[in-house]
Design a protein that fits this description.
Structural class: alpha/beta
EC number: 3.2.1.21
Helix content: 40-55%
Keywords: Carbohydrate metabolism, Cellulose degradation, Glycosidase, Hydrolase, Polysaccharide degradation
Number of helices: 15
Distance between the termini: 29 Å
Bound molecules: 4-nitrophenyl beta-D-glucopyranoside
Shape: globular
Order of helices and strands: EHHHEHHEHHEHHEEHHHEEHEEEHEEEH
InterPro entries: GH, GH_1_N_CS, Glyco_hydro_1, Glyco_hydro_1_AS, Glyco_hydro_1_beta-glucosidase
Largest sheet: 8 strands, parallel, barrel
Organism: Massilia arenae
Pfam family, one: Glyco_hydro_1
Length: 451
């Protein structure tokens, strides 16, 4: 395909990692193929009221059967790396007990395909699809699930640890806890603040146990975690708005960072949680507070904090996405610079997700998505500012390679730089994919001139 005429200037470091990201449940489909067990998302989708368009993940992008084509697309874009997740219930159908060789076989083939194409694999162990068998035992409310997770991490590291560049334990534990147990937008669909906070502790514990188990194996992979992060801005200068923003930052960002980097929960959030504070056992923080090799940071928007009724809306000077999320690139450097100041031991950072949903705009075989290109460009310019200010950022993964199952929004929200026609499973590069390809190619040209 001929690229639209883009002007670009890729002034990132020559060894910066350019990637795309997906997750297992959102793209794989093949929900019961080759011995895969059900996950809590298979279960959650059975209640049609949970998903806006009543859809589910049984087929999704059929990536399980089309991974070769999808890797081929990535190769054609020239990406350096691919961030994907493994479906725990594919490799251990019940979440405990026997391993499923056919399930491991899929990831083995995927890794081969990627490595053959020179695309470096970045794997996430848990992107929300808990085996239903573990949910039946209490899921993340059951402390034992953290130990089951460590067993799973150990096995993945043992089998694949030398072929994966980076392994993240969790994707966005904030979402698992708050959307899964706080407001029931996500599986398992519980509404209970106290439980959501206990779950967040078990997630952090499971991260620590998994880190330990994987370190024990050794292996070349860098080990870390992926958090969704934002700055929290008060809507006005009022005392109430400022207090709200401070608490919001503490309960969402510091809540996951402080245990890992400082070995305790943030005081302000603990106090605010009061009787809902989690049960923590002696030694838990020693398990959680371990050196991580990288921090994955997912950035989509800032948190806008207004204590007024009705709340003062965000200015949204750069518009909002199809998700209704305010576009605010300025928040990215603000966040990263703040993290660097707050956590002196901050390891190298990867932006493991960033991107936007916009409506389907197929026109004569072309998909024009200028808003997505503008979104990515503005966030990359902002990211460069953070790097110029001294934040050690090593890579950027655009969310997402493909239009896919957007959780409780079903297929109605499209995040892909590659369009998927779900009736035919046909993939079409959107203008944003063509732009990304040229952007990466500009770096490659510059590197060739240098050497
Ligand atoms: C992330 N929030 O989800 C996930 O990692 C992806 O699987 C998902 O497709 C992508 O972002 C787009 O939604 C989030 O409400 C979902 O704050 C919700 C929130 C944040 C991230």
């Amino acid at each position: 395909t001929k690229s639209p005429n883009f002007d670009f200037n890729n002034d990132f470091p020559s060894d910066f990692t350019w990637g795309v990201a997906t997750s297992s449940f959102q793209i794989e489909g093949a929900h019961d193929v080759d011995g895969k067990g059900p996950s809590i998302w298979d279960t959650f989708c059975k209640d049609k009221a949970n998903i806006k368009d009543g859809s589910d993940g049984t087929v999704a992008c059929d990536h399980y059967h089309r991974y070769r084509e999808d890797v081929e697309i990535m190769a054609s874009l020239g990406v350096d790396a691919y961030r994907f997740s493994m479906a725990w219930a594919r490799v251990q159908p019940d979440g405990k007990g026997a391993w499923n060789e056919a399930g491991f076989g899929f990831y083995d083939r995927l890794l081969d395909e990627l490595l053959d194409r020179g695309i470096r694999p970045h794997a996430t162990l848990y992107h929300w699809d808990l085996p239903q068998g573990l949910q039946d035992d209490g899921g993340w409310m059951n402390r034992d699930t953290a130990h089951r997770f460590a067993d799973y991490a150990h096995e993945v590291a043992r089998r694949f640890g030398n072929r994966i560049e980076a392994i993240a334990t969790h994707n966005e534990p904030w979402c698992t806890a708050n959307l899964g147990y706080g407001n029931a937008q996500f599986a398992p669909g519980v509404v209970d603040l106290k439980q959501s906070i206990q779950v967040s502790h078990h997630l952090l514990l499971s991260h620590g146990l998994a880190m330990r188990a994987m370190r024990e194996v050794g292996g070349a992979a860098q080990l870390g975690i992926v958090l969704n992060q934002w700055t929290a801005d008060p809507a006005t200068g009022s005392e109430a708005d400022r207090a709200m923003a401070e608490f919001e930052y503490a309960r969402s960002v510091q809540w996951f960072m402080d245990p890992i980097f400082k070995g305790h929960y943030p005081e302000l959030a603990l106090r605010g949680h009061g009787a809902n504070a989690p049960q923590v056992r002696d030694g838990d923080f020693d398990i959680i507070k371990q050196k991580i090799d990288f921090l994955g940071s997912n950035y989509y928007f800032r948190s806008w904090c207004s204590a007024a009724t009705p709340p003062v809306p965000p200015p949204a000077r750069h518009g909002v996405t199809d998700m209704g999320w305010e576009i605010f690139p300025e928040g990215l450097p603000e966040l990263l610079i703040k993290l660097k100041a707050e956590y002196p031991d901050l390891p190298p950072v990867y932006i493991t997700e960033n991107g936007m949903a916009n409506p389907d705009l197929v026109e004569n075989g072309r998909v024009h998505d200028p808003a997505r290109i503008a979104y990515v460009r503005s966030h990359l310019a902002a990211l460069k500012e953070a790097m110029d200010a001294g934040v050690d950022v090593r890579g950027y993964f655009l969310w997402s390679l493909l239009d896919n199952f957007e959780w409780n929004s079903g297929y109605a929200k499209r995040f892909g730089i590659v369009h998927v026609d779900y009736a035919t499973q046909q993939r079409t590069l959107k203008d944003s994919a063509l732009w990304y390809r040229e952007f990466i190619a500009a770096r490659n040209r510059a590197n060739r001139i240098k050497t």
